[in-house]
Amino acid sequence: MSDLISSRKSAACSWKSTSLSELHITKREREILTLMCDGKSAQEIAMILGCSVHTVRTHIESLKDTFSVYKDTALVAAAIRKGVIE
User: Fold this and answer.
1) Residue 30 predicted with pLDDT over 90
2) How far is residue 51's CA from residue 62's CA, in Å, rounded to a whole number?
3) How many domains does the chain have?
4) Which domain holds residue 70?
5) Are 84 and 30 within 8 A, CB to CB?
6) How far is CA 19 from CA 13, 35, 53, in A?
């Protein structure tokens, strides 16, 4: 169990040293992050972008993996810190 925790902590910190270009954030993911930063829900984002809620949630989960975070709020905070969104 402690090995799992250690590896997650290591992964969570490793993105900080990754350059913005190495994050491989797509244009659509950047749009979703921006809308999340504006306080929009997955359902609202889907309506704005003209796609399904499932698609939005899939993008959000992919972004969480990219930033090694578990919560939507942590994702937005990490994206702001990394300069992906302002």
Assistant:
1) yes
2) 16
3) 1
4) 2-82
5) yes
6) 13, 23, 30
pTM reported for the whole predicted model: 0.74
Q: Tokens in use for 54?
A: 């499932």
Distances (CA, A) of 68 to 33, 36, 46, 49, 79: 15, 17, 23, 25, 11
For residue 12, give Cα distances in angstroms to 7, 61, 65, 71.
Answer: 9, 15, 10, 13
CA distances from 72 to 1, 2, 26, 39 (A): 24, 25, 18, 11
Residue 11, domain CATH = 1.10.10.10
